[in-house]
Amino acid sequence: MNDRSTDRTADILKDFSLRYPKLQVTTINTLPEGWLGKNNALYQGYMSTTEEWVLFADADIVFHPDAINKAVGYAVKQQLDHLTILPELISRSAILNSVFATLSIMLMVDMKPWEAKNPKSKASSGIGAFNLVRRTAYEKFGTHRRIKLRPDDDLQLGRIMKREGFRQDVLAGKGAVCLEWYKSLGELGRGVQKNSFSIANYNLAQAIFNVIHMLLTVALPMPLMFIFGDTTIRIMAGIMLVFHMIYMVIVPPNKWWYAFMIPFSAFFLAWCFLKASVVTVARGGIYWRDSFYSLKVLKGEE
After folding, report:
1. Residue 257 sits in which domain range?
2. Total number of domains in the chain
3. How far is CA 293 from the centre of its chain?
């Protein structure tokens, strides 16, 4: 999908289509009213094909040559309606990698992706890097028209499909689905600004609660235990730190010292989420590329 690109994307895709005749390029010149650009592009991609399986993926994903074939084969064998693959996050910044490590732990605890395939569990998963859906299930779900104004469309797709009884599963994409998500802490902070408030359903009180919860459960415990605790409490904090170090060592490509960065990472992420929420409320909406979407529009009140 070439979505209103102003660089050399069109020329590159034209060259690709000559080299790979099976490649179909769809160009979007205008954005329909009432749509976020990405969501519309994903929907137009679905409209451009009649295949049984549709893969929604961000443009910056690097796939192993066999990744998609294996994913479709797994989905068919397991009789799934929706398959998500968690991408391997790659960064040239060691500090950013340490933040990703903490963020991954927080997401795992919150989303419980290992329970997504359990029909009795409320756990679900949806990742913009890799959302593979069965066409009939996607159409019953309502397509992206149902979530056309959700910046967190990937999460919502997974959440609603699971809630409505579609069969879902999650795989790890190490070595198969890779992503250089952001290149610096500043990029990460700016990147979450447009979509993190939607996770709280544009409710400032809920967003503040989420930030406080992040601080109390991840950022503050070990520092407070080391600084203000007695000998017993400090020993407990040391044991916690050792377990964090062991986790980082046994879950590559993490480094042992990432354990020491957990409080900083949680503080940084909490600040980013709080700032994004406050800025969005103060501004009255979000900017997505060159378009402004008011909170009333995003909430469906207009």
Report:
1. 198-298
2. 2
3. 21
Q: Note if the pTM is more than 0.85.
A: yes
Select from 112, 147, 179 the last residue of a domain: 179
Q: What is the predicted pLDDT for the residue at 92?
A: 87
pLDDT < 50 positions in the chain: none
pLDDT given at position 302: 66
Sign of the C-alpha dihedral computed for residues 257, 259, 265 and 267 taken in this order: negative
Give the Cβ contact number of residue 59 at 10 Å.
Answer: 11
141 HSE (CA, 13 A, CB side): 28
Structural contact between residues 196 and 268, judged by C-beta atoms closer than 8 angstroms:
no
CATH of the domain at 73: 3.90.550.10
Report the SS3 class of residue 169.
Answer: strand
Q: Residue 121 and residue 171: Cα distance in Å, rounded?
A: 17
| Residue 289 and residue 207 share a domain | yes
